[in-house]
């Protein structure tokens, strides 16, 4: 007689079916998510500071400039985390998207400093949209770690 009660395999529950993703977010994955989150929050604040300035409060321009410096720093941190994660896990979308966003953000920064609003404003809208997509991807897609009990540090 055959039994329907079979012993579970040693790897049961460790991998998602058909994806090979462990579902464990390691140190570099967590740091990438943190960098994307902080970068997104700061960049989403930039139109608010610009609006304060445009409504007549000259102090808003200083806040907008300070936000631009913070966004640039966080963009670089995100790119470093994205490249680190990509190299360790051999998944290239975090590095590619982060580096493209940093390049666009650099052009955005220079356009703002030069007063080229014809480029600064539409590029700012594009950066916000790009970061919104990246934020969604970073938090909805599983980021691989080293597996159960391990760390990818």
What does the model show?
The chain is an all-alpha fold. It has four helices and no strands. Helix 1 runs antiparallel to helix 2 (59-89), helix 2 (59-89) packs antiparallel against helix 3 (93-114) and helix 3 packs antiparallel against helix 4 (117-140). The termini are far apart.
List the helices and strands and how they pair.
Elements: H1 27-54, H2 59-89, H3 93-114, H4 117-140
Low-confidence stretches: 11-24, 147-151
Secondary-structure element pattern, one letter each: HHHH
> If you average the pLDDT, what whole number results?
85
Query: In which range does the helix fraction lie?
Result: 55-70%
Strand content: under 5%
How many helices? Answer: 4
- Number of separate strands: 0
Name the overall outline: elongated
Major sheet, described briefly?
none
Question: For the CA atoms, what is the radius of gyration?
Answer: 21 Å
Oligomeric state of this protein: single chain
- By secondary-structure content and strand pairing, the structural class works out as mainly alpha
Measure the end-to-end span. 50 Å
Quick tags:
elongated; 69% helix; 153 residues; mainly alpha; 4 helices; disordered C terminus
Brief characterization of the structure:
It contains 4 helices and no strands.
């Amino acid at each position: 007689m055959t039994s329907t009660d079979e012993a579970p395999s040693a790897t049961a529950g460790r991998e998602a079916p058909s994806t090979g993703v462990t579902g464990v977010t390691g140190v570099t994955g967590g740091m990438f998510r943190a960098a994307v989150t902080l970068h997104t929050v700061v960049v989403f604040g930039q139109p608010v500071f610009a609006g304060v300035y445009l409504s007549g409060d000259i102090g808003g321009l200083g806040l907008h400039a300070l936000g631009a410096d913070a966004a640039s720093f966080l963009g670089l941190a995100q790119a470093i985390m994205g490249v680190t994660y990509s190299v360790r896990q051999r998944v290239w979308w975090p590095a590619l998207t982060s580096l493209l966003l940093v390049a666009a953000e650099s052009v955005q920064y220079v356009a703002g400093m030069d007063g080229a609003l014809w480029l600064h404003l539409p590029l700012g809208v594009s950066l916000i949209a790009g970061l919104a997509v990246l934020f969604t991807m970073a938090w909805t897609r599983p980021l691989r770690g080293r597996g159960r009990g391990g760390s990818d540090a």
